[in-house]
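Audit log entry. Action: structure prediction of a protein-small molecule complex. Ligand: S-adenosylmethionine. The ligand was supplied as SMILES and no pocket hint was given, so placement is left entirely to the predictor. Protonation state taken as written. Sequence taken verbatim from the request; no trimming, no tag removal. Recorded inputs:
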Amino acid sequence: MSIKNYFLGVLFLAFLPFFAFSQNETDKPVFVPEEGIDGKDVIWWPTPPTLIKSMLDIAGVGPGDFVVDLGSGDGRIVIEAAKRGATAVGIEYNPDLVKLSEYRAKQEGVSGKATFLNMDLFEYDLSGATVITMYLLSDLNLRLRPSLLKLKPGTRIVSNTFDLGDWQADENITVTTPYHYPDGSFRHNVTNRGYYWIVPADVAGSWSLLGGQLKLEQHYQKIEGSWQNAGKSVPVTYGRMTGNRISFTIGDSEYTGTLENGRMQGTLKVSGETRNWEADRIEN
Ligand SMILES: C[S@@+](CC[C@H](N)C(=O)[O-])C[C@H]1O[C@@H](n2cnc3c(N)ncnc32)[C@H](O)[C@@H]1O
């Protein structure tokens, strides 16, 4: 061994602990957040794991989904979604929380599926999302509502605690979690609520149906109206959209179907018989 290589070797061994320490240091979380630290429009307050499970369960999150958590805090929802095989992104204004989330995703082995963007959630383009999760505030939800309603029909939205005003949820979530003292004895139950919506397709307007005219009015996922034929008008009842799927009743006939490329088609049940139906749009 030459003298030069020997000293290079000694130098390497001398600095080895330093390199190892630096590596460990960069792998450590940047900080441990306290509940209630500042975000931009709302503070950080984490969703409990039991509710996260229910939120992701009700939305059926799995491979093929693109989940966006608006205001992602320490990344827990994004990480859980990634563990279920989804691609997930967290939008978070607080840069320290973003760094912590990235660290936690790496620790959990999902950094390839879970990414975090340090930005204002109102600036993020939601159009690619199949599932949106949020734990914000009522007024922030209402600010988001117009953008949410423009998303692809069938996009699922789940919110911890706060609703979307008069856009009623398709389903409600209630989760009761027992909390214990450090010695393991029961302390109290905490009940958390959540809301689940499916973005409805827009079907308001007039349609040609079975030789008559179907006139639909729509209030979010609820539809009502009438079917007019030969001077008679029959009310449309029990009308509902679930993404692209439609169901309604005219008289004794129960219609179910889907909207695709401006045309609705499906089956109707009447007097024990099942028939096909289709409707073309006349005007919006
Ligand atoms: C109540 S916490 C919810 C955290 C996480 N979604 C969860 O459920 O555990 C709300 C989060 O939104 C972030 N936030 C507040 N305003 C924001 C904004 N305009 N853009 C992005 N993030 C924001 C806060 O920093 C905080 O982490």
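Audit: result stored. Residues 39-42, 44-47, 69, 71-73, 76-77, 91-94, 97, 120-122, 135, 160 surround S-adenosylmethionine (CB under 6 Å). The two ends are 85 Å apart (CA to CA).
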